[in-house]
Amino acid sequence: MIKHRLASAALALLVAGSAFGAGTEPAAPLKTIEKLDLVRYLGTWHEIARTPNWFQQKCASDTRAEYRPLAGDRVEVINRCRKADGQLTEAIGEARRVGGPDSARLEVRFAPAWLSWLPVVWGDYWVIDLDPEYQLVAVSEPQRKYLWVLARQPQVDAQTYAALLGRLKQQGFDLSQLERSPQSGH
User: Containing H/E element for 128?
Assistant: First the structure.
């Protein structure tokens, strides 16, 4: 358990610190959606695709995130995935909104709560594309180093996915690094 907490703290530090080590930033600043209804956003999201990152290397399939309300404008984040050996693994964190009550900019931490006072344990979680029905979302951070495509269902039809990729390309993302995330339906 302590090993898991230390790994979670290290993960949060690296994610939060990634903004300082990013390479060349695209000319236009990354835009978020205009308004995020956090209550509608709660629930389970399946990972459809992601850019490779070290903290999800053990995730072989069935990656998903569950968002549950906490006191105030905070959200519990439970990330789960299936490793290659079939075992489920999870990381539990917390998200908080940055900005006004409709802001699509959040910060997330997976470090222990007692470290939450440290700004470096919080990583950017920006909702940059979201359909009106809250069924398909793209999440990133200001430097575009990380990108996740999430959906309410484990699969997304090809036309809808292609349209999202087109919008992400217009936002300056290098989609050559984007990898599809296997969902087995467990």
Answer: strand 123-130
For 121, the 3-state DSSP assignment is: helix
The tens digit of pLDDT for each residue in 23-38 reads: 454 458 999 999 999 9
Q: How far apart are CA 136 and CA 153, in angstroms?
A: 9
What pairs with residue 151 in β-bridges? 46, 136
Judge whether residue 95 has pLDDT over 80: yes
The pTM of the full predicted model, rounded to 2 decimals, is 0.83
Instruction: Give me the domains of the chain, ranges plus CATH numbers.
Output: 2-21+30-174 (2.40.128.20)
Amino acid identity for residue 179 in this structure: E
Chain CA centroid to CA 77, Å: 10
Token duo for residue 177: 């690094």
